[in-house]
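pinging the channel bc i need a second pair of eyes. not urgent but kinda urgent?? the chain im working w is below, pasted from the shared doc
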Amino acid sequence: MSERSRPVAVIAVVVVAGLLAATAGAMVLTQHLRDEGPVASSIYWKVRPGPRYRVCFLLTRDDDVRASVVDVDRQPVAVLGDGPLEGGDHPHCFPWNGLTSAGTPAPPGIYHLQLDLRRADRVAVSGEKVRIPEPRAQP
């Protein structure tokens, strides 16, 4: 090996070692998150005339939870509840009147439930959604 190629070889070895360490770290983190499992299940929205909405879910474990409605960009629209909730088979249900936290009607679109679990230090956004339709034109 020539005198000039030695620094390049050392840099290559350091880079490869760093990439291997980062890959191992990512694998450990991914396995840790997988072991924690889902934070909520059985999420469903009910739509009632009004407009009135109701979202229900089960928690897998006790936690201090902020339940919010978010838009498709995960921007908060309204806080439904904030406090300790029990995990288990008892569903937690929250009504939503279709209004934003500012008290104005949420615009037509698709909305999701977001759960901020403080003890678990996790945020989960449901795949379940509710759609606020465009207002119907009056004849």
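so The radius of gyration is 23 Å. and Residues 81 and 105 are 18 Å apart (CA to CA). — does that match what u expected or am i reading it wrong
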